[in-house]
Structure formats: C-alpha cells, structure tokens
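Lab meeting, item 3. Inverse folding demo.
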C-alpha cells in the first residue's frame, strides 16, 4: 500500500475514490483509496513548495482536485491525455497546474 503524507503533526485526511471510476486514487500497483491527502500547512498560504505539490502525483484527477481544495490550493489542469489547455500567464504560488494521463496526475507544477 502506498501512503503519501506531509510533514508536521496531526492526522492526514484520507481521500477516497468513491465514484471516481476505475483506477482512481491509486498509481501503479495501487488501489482505490491508497493515497492520503497531506495535512494543511501554514506555509502553503505563502507558497506551495514543489515537494508539497508533488504529493498529488498518483491521485486521480478528481481526488487531486479535492485534496488541493482541502489544502486551500487553487487547482487547474494544464494537459489531459495529451491535450493542452489554454492557461492564464499569471503566476501564483498558491496554485498547482497538473498533467493528467488516464485519469491519474503524473506531473504537477506550482504557478
């Protein structure tokens, strides 16, 4: 079982994949519900670190969006299954832009 957790004290919040479709919530070899949304960090209010943003890799698109929302991060999809989407040119340290392949987040960028 793969568990992704952030640094700090307190309990992490599980993100389940109910209603997300096949393969949701798990990466290679993982099953539904294997990934855990990290706990909130005060530092995220100033800037999301690349290390924190990469915790979304392996989540289904929907679960990554739910987790980002729970953490107070803005979320957008930059590319899905090879199709790029138009994005604003502004840069935000409180936003993640994800690349999704077959409903799984495979890459995350802050900004």
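The presenter then showed the designed sequence:
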């Amino acid at each position: 079982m793969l568990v992704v957790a952030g640094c700090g004290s307190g309990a992490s919040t599980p993100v389940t994949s109910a209603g997300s479709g096949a393969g949701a919530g798990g990466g290679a070899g993982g099953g539904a519900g294997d990934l855990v949304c990290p706990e909130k960090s005060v530092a995220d209010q100033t800037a999301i670190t690349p290390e924190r943003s990469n915790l979304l890799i392996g989540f289904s698109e929907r679960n990554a969006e739910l987790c980002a929302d729970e953490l107070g991060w803005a979320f957008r999809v930059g590319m899905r299954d090879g199709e790029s989407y138009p994005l604003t040119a502004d840069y935000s340290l409180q936003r993640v832009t994800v690349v999704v392949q077959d409903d799984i987040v495979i890459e995350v960028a802050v900004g």
